[in-house]
Amino acid sequence: LEQNQTHAEQETMEVTLKTEVEAGASGFSVMGGGNEGIFIKKVLKESPASKIFSLREGDQLLSATIFFDNIKYEDALKILQYSEPYRVQFSLKRKIAGKEELEHIHSTVQYKKERVSQVDI
Amino acid sequence: LEQNQTHAEQETMEVTLKTEVEAGASGFSVMGGGNEGIFIKKVLKESPASKIFSLREGDQLLSATIFFDNIKYEDALKILQYSEPYRVQFSLKRKIAGKEELEHIHSTVQYKKERVSQVDI
């Protein structure tokens, strides 16, 4: 058992991390692109990138979720335009007429119920 | 019971939906911004926005997750720059030295284990 633990300590592991959801992700630069992927190049000490988001140099940026509450129209538009060629997933709020329409959503599109009020389409 | 069902059918509900994760979200326009929120203004019939993402006019765009695989450096940079003032969450891949460093991540930052290899920081 002890030998296994020693082995585990020496091993290099790859973990997938999710940062906090916060505004003002400043104080870092990125490098890479294309097949290579996007990596954190430099993180300024004491910056939000370091203190709030816990970004570290060398981290690979897999995805960014941008929340659209209180966003300027122009900024939302730019983000949507620049991300158009790439894989995206949207989270939407939709008003539906009631049970009947909800059942229509369920039957016509693939979905996974996440909460009572949340479905994937 | 029947009366309850009738009532449920007349009710207007608000649901939160997640779209498919796909590239090429074209064929829609947005409106709004600020306190109001961002809403889908127009969706072109037969467009990816309609067919793949199932966007509907009037949907509120709560968030967009942009995946950085095969993204151009310049586009990633623009997306990060435009989203800086707003609430964001990053998904990262990090190489760690092994068990010891993993325990360090666990002890110093708040996290929620999602899978064996996935932690929230």
TrEMBL record, chains A, B:
<dbReference type="GO" id="GO:0043034">
    <property type="term" value="C:costamere"/>
</dbReference>
<dbReference type="GO" id="GO:0005634">
    <property type="term" value="C:nucleus"/>
</dbReference>
<feature type="domain" description="PDZ">
    <location>
        <begin position="14"/>
        <end position="81"/>
    </location>
</feature>
<protein>
    <recommendedName>
        <fullName>PDZ domain-containing protein</fullName>
    </recommendedName>
</protein>
<dbReference type="Pfam" id="PF00595">
    <property type="entry name" value="PDZ"/>
</dbReference>
<dbReference type="InterPro" id="IPR052082">
    <property type="entry name" value="Myelin_sheath_structural"/>
</dbReference>
<keyword id="KW-0539">Nucleus</keyword>
<dbReference type="GO" id="GO:0043484">
    <property type="term" value="P:regulation of RNA splicing"/>
</dbReference>
<dbReference type="InterPro" id="IPR001478">
    <property type="entry name" value="PDZ"/>
</dbReference>
<dbReference type="InterPro" id="IPR036034">
    <property type="entry name" value="PDZ_sf"/>
</dbReference>
